[in-house]
């Protein structure tokens, strides 16, 4: 039997017995007759040239239960899009690529912007949002998974474990979040989650007081993981940030829209490694520097919608409180790494914490200075209310790009 426990907030399927992937896939094929499944892959063109994505496609070729695969392709010109069509052509599933920089989808994007409905900046959130719209337009999937395209240790059992809780006909979960140990090459990874999000949530509990929302986020073992699965109707009603706040934004919307009994998390891999972002101390628009800013702003916005008010003094207090929690955690991580024979560079860890602490204050200033900022992409329910035929026209544009001349 699978070993799981209720952590007080959401169901956590932890340390599952590692069933052979073939057994899981056999069951998922049966489940798919009732709940057809799709997969979203948000990708930069550069990832087609990297070491991970070709191996991911090799694994997906073997997956028997997927009804469709939708790839969101960013930063690609015409020749690169044509290359991508050939790159993904070996997938046996119904596969479509959203050429987000192509003339057809750009025209649709500009139309939405004229209605005040588009994503104001490019990023992973915008890419996922358009893929979600296409999934809704295709009507081929009632359950949709999503994972990143830079997973170096990918095998298809990760996807099977991720999809299983949402597709099982006796389960009532609408959303499943994946997690895994962030260990690779003898090192403890996952710096933004370990060194920023965890101590920040604890600091927010101290400064703002105990809140169900903060307890909810803190119950996720890896809130920043890019792997999750959901019922397709979830995609219609959620608003998500366009930037690096995507994962926090999705979790926040689910807490607002769904009973916690409908949400779960599951252990999906024994090892996980992917492309590591540089810290980019000197560039606030890239790497972990940009990521930490976006995540902090996403948290502040959500807390504001729940009635929490912030001032400059509050953010200064939060920075100091976070810094103390983070330094204490570094010591604990150092001991954990030592006990498990892993390496951890305390100097680099403390440098990252100093950057994150500074960015908490900077994100607070940005939040206070721009109260009229539109932080979320509108839900597809709202977009369809304003432009009723938008999904049909998106579907037509994607079909023409994938099957016609470009």
TrEMBL record:
Gene3D superfamilies: Spore Coat Polysaccharide Biosynthesis Protein SpsA, Chain A. Keywords: Transferase. It comes from the Bacteria. One of its GO terms (molecular function) is transferase activity. This is Glycosyl transferase. It comes from Vreelandella zhaodongensis (Halomonas zhaodongensis).
């Amino acid at each position: 039997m699978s070993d799981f426990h209720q952590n007080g907030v959401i169901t956590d399927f932890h340390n599952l017995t590692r069933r052979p992937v073939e057994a899981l896939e056999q069951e998922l094929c049966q489940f798919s007759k009732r709940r057809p499944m799709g997969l979203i892959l948000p990708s930069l063109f550069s990832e087609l040239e990297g070491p991970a994505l070709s191996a991911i496609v090799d694994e997906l070729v073997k997956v028997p239960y997927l009804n469709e695969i939708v790839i969101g392709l960013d930063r690609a010109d015409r020749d690169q899009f044509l290359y991508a069509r050939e790159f993904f052509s070996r997938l046996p599933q119904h596969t479509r690529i959203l050429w987000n920089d192509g003339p057809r989808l750009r025209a649709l994007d500009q139309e939405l912007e004229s209605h005040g409905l588009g994503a104001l900046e490019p990023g992973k959130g915008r890419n996922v949002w358009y893929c979600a719209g296409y999934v809704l337009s295709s009507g081929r999937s009632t359950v949709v998974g999503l994972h990143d395209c830079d997973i170096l240790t990918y095998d298809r059992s990760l996807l099977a474990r991720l999809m299983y809780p949402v597709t099982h006909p006796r389960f009532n979960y609408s959303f499943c979040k994946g997690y895994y140990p962030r260990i690779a090459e003898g090192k403890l990874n996952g710096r933004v989650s370990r060194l920023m999000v965890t101590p920040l949530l604890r600091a927010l509990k101290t400064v703002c007081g105990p809140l169900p929302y903060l307890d909810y986020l803190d119950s996720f073992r890896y809130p920043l993981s890019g792997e999750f699965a959901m019922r397709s109707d979830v995609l219609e009603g959620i608003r998500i940030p366009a930037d690096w706040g995507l994962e926090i934004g999705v979790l926040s919307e689910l807490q607002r829209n769904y009973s916690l009994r409908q949400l779960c998390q599951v252990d999906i891999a024994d090892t996980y490694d992917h492309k590591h972002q540089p810290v980019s101390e000197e560039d606030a628009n890239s790497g972990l520097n940009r990521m930490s800013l976006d995540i902090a702003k996403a948290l502040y916005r959500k807390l504001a919608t729940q009635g929490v008010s912030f001032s400059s003094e509050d953010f200064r207090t939060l920075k100091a409180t976070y810094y103390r929690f983070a330094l204490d955690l570094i010591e604990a991580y150092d001991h954990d790494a030592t006990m498990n024979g892993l390496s951890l560079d305390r100097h680099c860890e403390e440098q990252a914490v100093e950057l994150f602490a500074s960015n908490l204050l900077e994100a607070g200033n940005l939040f206070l200075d721009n109260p009229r900022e539109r932080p979320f992409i509108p839900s597809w329910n709202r977009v369809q209310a304003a432009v009723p035929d938008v999904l049909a026209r998106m579907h037509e544009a994607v079909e023409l790009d994938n099957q016609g001349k470009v």
